[in-house]
Design brief:
Low-confidence stretches: 1-6, 12-22, 84-92
Order of helices and strands: HHHHHEHEHHEHEHEEEEHHEHEEHHH
CATH class of the largest domain: Alpha Beta
Number of strands: 11
Mean pLDDT: 86
Largest sheet: 7 strands, mixed
Radius of gyration: 24 Å
Number of domains: 3
CATH architecture of the largest domain: 3-Layer(aba) Sandwich
Helix content: 25-40%
Structural class: alpha/beta
Distance between the termini: 51 Å
Length: 443
Amino acid sequence: MTINDRLIYSLMTLGIKKEGISRIYDEAALDDDNNIIPFSTQMAIVTHYANLRGKRVGEGYKKKAEQLIESWGNFFENQPKELKQLSCVSEPSALELTIFNEVESAPFHAIQRPKFKFIDLFAGIGGFRLAFQNLGGECVFSSEWDAQAQKTYYANYGEVPFGDITKEYTKRFIPQEFDILCAGFPCQAFSLAGKRLGFAETRGTLFFDVADILNRWHPKAFFLENVKGLAIHDKGKTLKTILNTLDEVGYIVPEPQIVNAMYFGVPQHRERIYIVGFRKDLGITKEDFHYPDQKEVTKHFIDIREEDPVPAKYYLSTQYLNTLISHRARHEAAGHGFGYEIIGDNEVANAIVVGGMGRERNLVIDKRQTDLTPTTNIKGVYNTDGIRRMTPREWARLQGFPDDFRIPVADASAYKQFGNSVAVPAIQATAKEILKTLKKSKK
């Protein structure tokens, strides 16, 4: 482990008793109400500042970030000898420089001459961020509560996302000026007791916080993504509530559209609902915006398959495979379409989703691996028909992430993160249309 790796490992595990590292509980670690700021939030403040330092948009992070860096430097000075001997953490100025270097070494850190600014809510592993950065955008705030996803986000963007977006302390760090709000918000049932089907009806849901930020910060536009089922959830009442709320907080919303990722250069049949809106005072009409065309499938599994034979651990054991075969046979006998599925080299994958079925409905045949010696504990032996799961890297490619996108987590977390992510090329194609529409603005 290099010095810098050791530093970040130490920082990211603070707050957990590990390797003699204890918690940081000094004044810098307290919020305005004298509550201890979670260390992940401290990291969020510092890394946001590091990404945006020297820019006006980063001023809101500066004071607290500098206090925290000084606090951390003092903390390390009083730690066990093996940490104190690391020159990069022996004093605050050296620690600050090391953190800034770490941020800049991330493969997708903030760009220097942005064309516009955006925030990334319910960020996951940053699919929205990657798409908007590819178009010249600068992310000025990110939020994601899952610790493993935060780890992947940090590894790729040099920034730890803030956690709970429902907390006012988190929202206070959102810069006053940004152009576009992005959110792959979770779908929750709304209480429709009041029957007003507007802003008040969303209270208690995570969408309420999206609407609250739109209502208070007034960015020029927003881009929301959700599962296809949102369109018919609760007989359409949930979507109606969302659209009425967006109208109430000041946005014109073109008809939402189901967008399929397979028409944007990734071999995955993935349908999601996209909701785009523009601030009413911009003079943009619903007819000004057009979702990108969905015309042609250009990629198949063979185009994203691992170049080299994959390890034996991805191959199914004979016992597990027999269980899947029996499971599918039972459902077929009952007239159901459930069960495992094998994707041919020249076919398009099913939607990758969280859970075992996300992998089992996207099995492939790959006979290139000749050494099927078990490297993990399995029941039986690996099958000799070449039936295997796709790898996390193949799932990353199915979502349009480039090969230099880092996967710093275990396979189980990686599958979950890519399964929950947005399809980057489809997001980027739609984002391009949003930017094109904004150019028609009267302001």
